[in-house]
Amino acid sequence: MTSSGGSPATTPIGSRAEAEGYVAMVCFKHGPPRLFGVELEWTVHHADDPHRPLDAGLLSKALGMHAPATLVRGSPQLPLSRGALVTVEPGGQVEISGPASDSIPQLIDDTAADAAELTALLLDADLVPGAYGLDPFRTPRRILTVPRYAAMEHAFQRLGPHGPRMMCSTAGLQICLDAGEQDETALRWRALHDLGPALVGLFANSRRRAGSDTGWASARTQATFGTCAPFTEPPPLDADPAAAWARTAMEAPVLCLRRGDTWDAPTGLTFGAWADGQLPGDRPTYDDLDYHLSTLFPPVRPRGYLEVRYLDAQPGDGWIAPTLLLTALMSAPMDQVLAAAEPAAGRWFPAAREGLKDTLVLRAARDVVALGTEVMDRTGVDPELIAAVATRLQRAVDTTTHGRRAS
What we know:
Blueprint: H1 16-27, E1 36-42, E2 44-46, H2 56-63, E3 85-88, E4 94-97, H3 104-124, E5 127-129, H4 147-157, H5 162-169, E6 172-177, H6 185-203, E7 208-209, E8 212-213, H7 219-227, H8 241-251, H9 271-275, H10 286-293, E9 300-302, E10 306-312, H11 320-329, H12 334-341, H13 348-354, H14 359-374, H15 383-406
Antiparallel strand pairs: 1-4, 1-6, 2-5, 3-4, 6-10, 7-8, 9-10
Helix pairs in contact: 1-8, 4-5, 5-7, 6-12, 6-13, 6-14, 11-14, 11-15, 12-14, 14-15
């Protein structure tokens, strides 16, 4: 899913206030909630030994004409058969992102077909997609040499170890939803955040990192939140999410200053300060602002639609369950969704550390699963798939509950 702004890309920005107005306008677009999208990401491993470092040349050969230009300069980056583009993250993680769809069954069919095609391409090179939200075998290692990732890595390394882990070792499942009509956007924004801890706990699978037990159910979440806090952490839920996000974007550090061959930005430079003239003779343009927005990684990122980024990647076809659950929930009355999520609302860190072992996270997960499966027929998918997903979700919360009683 893509968004576009209304200002010429090369127009200089006159002030922070002007930049904030632009962000609020392009990041939250209103209308009936109609379109859905999903993006799947995997770490990539050698089939014979998942501990071996990934080689950029071998990955390039595997992806062929589908490789992005960040991996193979001049590549045409042809889409997969059902329309998804393949991109590559700094550590060699591969991601597929297909066109938005107004049909969830079609979205699932197309995404499954393109995921199978990508897996086949990897297997032909004796590579396999990972099954977890975090590389459990290897330490972070950047294989892309483009200026964007060099600058981001340099900026994140100053803040601690989590940034390189997020860039090079994590893999996520992203679900994209329309923001809705103007009078419902704030409630949908809150619901996606309130649901976050329950869903993080329910689908957490990234406990191990580089061969060691981290003690976190979702160490991917730990790495993401720790990358550039507070800007990668859940935001305060303001009554006006567009205005709040615009302020956040202005206060966030500039990670990439696209000038010359080296894109390192001055330490401590925020976009708001840049827009207000902190760099004499160098005003940011709207293209610079759009690029800055692409370097922000909150749990839910507004891009004209709402991009849910807080879920660990799932093994095999495991991405279907969270996709159906979340899209079904967002079709239900928002008061029911908020009530189901309420026991764990705001408990992001307990959810990431303990998963469903946290009592309140488990309670919310049970209620969220019950509501989501009750309205899952609204997604239009085949009843057999609904039954399979409902059984899978119920088993997840029941297993945790029974295990606690047994102990």
